[in-house]
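## Example pair
The file below holds two records. Each record gives the amino-acid sequence first, followed by its structure token line.
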Amino acid sequence: MGYIEKRGKSSWRISAKTTTASGATVYVPMTIHMDPALPESVQRRDAQRELDLLEKRLNQSAQTAWTLRDWSEEWITKLLRPDCSPVTISNYRYLLDSRILPALGDYRLDELTPAILTDWLIRLRADPRRTTRKPETQLQRARRESEERALAPRAKLQKPLSAKTALNYYGCLSTLLAAAVRMGYLEHNPMDRVQRPRKKRTHRAALTEEDAVRLIRLLDTLPEDRRCFRLAVLLALLCGLRLGEVVALRYSDISWTAGTIDISRAVKYTSATGTFTADPKTDSAVRQITLPPAMLDILRENQNQDAADEIDMSAEDELAGRRLRYHRSGHIIHNRFGQPVNKDTPSKWFRAFAEENGFPSITFHDLRHAHASILVAHNVDIAAVAARMGHSDATVTLSTYTHPFAAHDQAAARILDQLIRPTPPAQDPPEDQPAAIAPADPAGAAAPAADPSTAAS
């Protein structure tokens, strides 16, 4: 805050407080002259107005002197961290640190023009993809064959970024600068005049209803030590759950009498925090859904088997004189010692299972897509489907999570075919051929003729 000093009959000195780019606090003086005929109270009021204007100009100058790097830290610390999940912050941090700040971080906010940002976006889209894969020389052991198959092909890493990835960077920078506009640090968002990357809609492999039935039959043949993986797949396919929601489920979330299950937690991961349990992805993802009766039976059988496994393993440990290995955590999906599994374990297991059984393009998340598509195909109310999926807007369910089945496309073609080849009208029988005789009444009596006066209108 500045101060005002009277220097003469009509002369005033005002000093405005501001902060330099290096963080030092300085006072900027300014001398103003008033009309000598004005009373001192009026002169002081006008001097205060000039001081306010000077401080405003200095603050705007200091704010626009911030670099994009400085503002990004301010944005994350003061605007994102109080309301966003650690996963969201981690995703934004990766986008900033990987390709935005190395190229644009030293620019002042007021220096970022549409031309500079367009050039950055062009270079970004030509940038080859990156990987966190460690070279073989840094590994403690050689990769297994299954681990090698799970890695992205090296040829794919040489390709430029996809339009979807470029759109993520575009959205991050646009959101960052829009926040600066809202805070008064910029007059307008220069990203508004940068052409938005156009994402091509790719064909996503869809699990048909027939495929889903075959998948369930294959799951029934799994050995006993894979029953938790079977449960994870069924919960995603029959209940439409996300992977993190599946791993976080506990038996205490099930209402055995009502046949419902509460979805109120999700397992998440960031490189900074590791694995943690938090609220689901959105507010609408906190939901209660009805379980298929067969799914409820499977869950009850699995819970009973968990109790039997604990008894058997504990008896073995006591007989061998070692500490007990089985400790039930209450999680539905767990390892052989009753403890929760890593968030990505069911997904990695399903990837190998799908490849071995003729579903090479189906991922664990595609099971959730199949859940929505099958329900919509059977004319289930879209609002009910969106509620099961945890979507606040049914248009997201229709546009993203439902896929047309070939059988329905063929049925549509048959309906339209009748426009070209309509059903021919019935032909009168030839004169030498008697008309068809109506079948006799089973009781042997002829049906009475209808009375025209009692016919329904």
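Second record, same layout:
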Amino acid sequence: MEWESKHPFLKPSTKKGENYAYCSYCKCDFSVSHGAMNDVKNHIKTKKHSVNHKAVVESSKISSHFPASGTMYEKVSVKFILFFLLYFFFKSNKQNIT
């Protein structure tokens, strides 16, 4: 269907049948039986879709807030944490021995 290729956030509805599209931004099904592309344009113009589209575009993936696995930052962080764990472990055991 033409609207699927132009709008990757739209898929054929699995709940309501071939005359409906599912919008992954709005998490809803809407009819495309009146004129497919015109129905899609009307849905895209709705306030619900505009708000949800903006939220998707402006939000970032949680993985972008963490360094990639195996980076120098990650290796240094692990060594740093291990150093402090060992430091406090031996410091507390030294006080118990004396």
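Notes on the second record: The longest strand covers residues 20-23. The chain has a mean pLDDT of 84.
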